[in-house]
Design brief:
By secondary structure, this protein is mainly alpha-helical. The chain contains nine helices and no strands. The termini are far apart.
């Protein structure tokens, strides 16, 4: 029976594995995100405003993640999407900044100092992923940010509709096309493992962010 070379990716390490990771660990199905973005549930304006402020605190600043990933090219993969994503993400941050201003002040919430510390930790975690010297790590984090951002977008667009603001058109790359770029058998397995690691770390940060947003809403309800 032929043995597999350590540098030959398996199907699970390739595109299918990344997609499965997104389905299991991405934040699209987080219950509080679903609640905030469900037009029929009519989430409170205060909770929507807080979520937008929190996401802005974590991701509202400029990020080097996409361009940093281009500095560690992965053999056999077309990474041109990273440059397009960097440009599009600047527009996404502008949309987020406009919404943050439109929803008004950050709602008063117990434990704000601890929340500020958590936001700083998330920013630091993404900075560390962006500067990782492990080829594929920054790319994986960038893929996860792209995927989860489209889930965050559901919150943004819900708030925009409530406020009577036109939702900005997204120019972010199609995540299915991005994931498929790493399905090539020429992509080293070590790089694919690094992509998965970077994505796992980024997804975990976002789940933690949404858990914090949910906990903040519960704390306000108890006031």
């Amino acid at each position: 029976m032929p043995t597999r070379s350590p540098d030959t990716p398996t199907q699970d390490e390739g595109a299918l594995g990344i997609a499965q990771l997104a389905a299991n660990d991405g934040c699209a199905g987080h219950p509080f995100l679903v609640r905030l973005s469900d037009a029929t549930a009519w989430a409170s304006a205060r909770d929507l405003a807080d979520a937008i402020h929190c996401i802005c605190a974590a991701h509202g600043g400029a990020t080097a993640l996409f361009l940093s990933a281009t500095r560690c090219p992965i053999p056999g993969a077309d990474q041109s999407w990273l440059v397009a994503a960097a440009t599009a993400f600047a527009d996404e941050r502008a949309y987020l900044a406009a919404l943050t201003a439109a929803v008004g002040p950050l709602p008063s919430t117990p434990g704000q100092a601890q929340s500020d510390g958590a936001f700083a930790a998330i920013r630091h975690a993404f900075d560390m992923l962006a500067t990782s010297q492990r080829t594929g790590c920054a790319t994986g984090a960038a893929i996860a940010l792209l995927i989860d951002w489209k889930a965050f977008r559901r919150i943004f667009d819900t708030a925009a509709e409530r406020l009577g603001i036109a939702a900005a058109v997204s120019a972010l790359p199609d995540e299915t096309v991005v994931i498929a770029a790493y399905a090539s058998p020429d992509t080293p397995a070590a790089a694919l493992r690094a992509i998965r690691f970077g994505a796992q770390q980024a997804f975990a940060q976002h789940r933690g962010l949404l858990d914090l947003i949910e906990a903040r809403a519960a704390a306000r309800d108890r006031q």
